[in-house]
Design a protein that fits this description.
Number of helices: 4
Number of strands: 6
Strand content: 15-25%
Shape: globular
Structural class: alpha/beta
Radius of gyration: 16 Å
Helix content: 25-40%
Oligomer: single chain
CATH class: Alpha Beta
Number of domains: 1
Largest sheet: 4 strands, parallel
Strand order of the largest sheet: 2-1-3-4
Length: 121
């Protein structure tokens, strides 16, 4: 079986209106050799979907429905990779959140690989 090898990095469409989160996700994704197009609102997102080809879309919970109605690629909710963990026992009470980067990247790669395999790429 001959399998085409694509040297182009997977292209991720990011639909995250919160600039701080978007910048962190862009840094994470580009650091893992993904190409990223970032959009901050529905109009930019719709234009990007019409004009580009993407391996996956990363967004937040409130936008999942509209993204599903627009695109036929894997959609990942980055919020499911944000976890709360208790602070150390000598620290003030409360929780601190962290973003599970490793699991996030693994999930993106899994969906991209699964999609590529199902398309015969």
């Amino acid at each position: 079986m001959v399998r085409r090898v694509d040297e182009t990095p997977p292209h991720i469409l990011l639909f995250v209106p919160q600039l701080e989160f978007a910048e962190r996700l862009i840094d994470t994704l580009t650091g893992e050799a993904f190409s990223v197009t970032a959009t901050k609102d529905q109009a930019e997102f719709a234009t990007a979907v019409r004009n580009g080809r993407f391996s996956a879309i990363v967004t937040a919970t409130p936008f999942i429905g509209s993204v599903q109605a627009t695109a036929a690629v894997p959609i990942l909710n980055y919020e499911i990779f944000v976890h709360r963990r208790p602070l150390e026992s000598d620290a003030p009470s409360g929780n601190r959140s962290y973003f599970d980067v490793d699991d996030f990247i693994k999930r993106i790669r899994f969906h991209i690989d699964a999609t590529s395999t199902s398309r015969g790429i």
